[in-house]
């Protein structure tokens, strides 16, 4: 069973979260029914309006759902798996950010199967999860959340989605973290710190969340 988690804990400022999620908007442009799983306060749902996409959200936080409804968003206080089971072949887009790492392998397989079944033909599923290729994430950030069950590397997510009959159309690392780190490397001290980290940790310390986008044909 998928429980409510807090994807924003230890995740940076609200502005950074918005800028991170904004990198995914174009994948959902002009979509008629994008499901945001674990929609929280509705940040991504509100941003989808920029790309003329209609959305619906599910979350287990009554407080978050109340806030979303006060903003006029179409949201449901419901377990994600239960919602997906009740809505087969319904959505032309599904967004699941910082969810998969909270699931055991068996739970992840069930969730991906239900998500695939809830997509219409031509619909896309976007999975975003912490990037363990980034040494800062793996050594520290990933383990700050006690509810994290295990990491899901990009290659594994691609394989799992392919086994669901979906076609991978894009994958990689969210570019906003690199921008955020470079932005902070100001002045002589900041630039020295940047290059010390790069030399010590390698170029992957710039890499943001892993994301995979798959399409149902």
Give an overview in words:
By secondary structure, the chain is α/β, with parallel strands linked by helices. The protein has one domain: Vaccinia Virus protein VP39 (Rossmann fold). It contains nine helices and seven strands, in the order αβαβαβαβαβααβααβ. Strands 3-2-1-4-5-7-6 form a seven-stranded mixed beta sheet, sandwiched between helices. Strand 4, helix 5 and strand 5 form a beta-alpha-beta unit. The N terminus is likely disordered.
Write the layout of secondary structure elements.
Elements (H helix, E strand, L loop, with lengths): L13 H9 L11 E4 L5 H6 L6 E5 L2 H9 L4 E3 L2 H7 L4 E7 L7 H14 E11 L5 H5 L14 H10 L3 E7 L2 H9 L2 H15 L8 E6 L2
Parallel strand pairs: 1-2, 1-4, 2-3, 4-5
Antiparallel strand pairs: 5-7, 6-7
Helix pairs in contact: 4-5
Q: What features would you highlight for this structure?
A:
alpha/beta; Rossmann fold; 217 residues; 9 helices; disordered N terminus
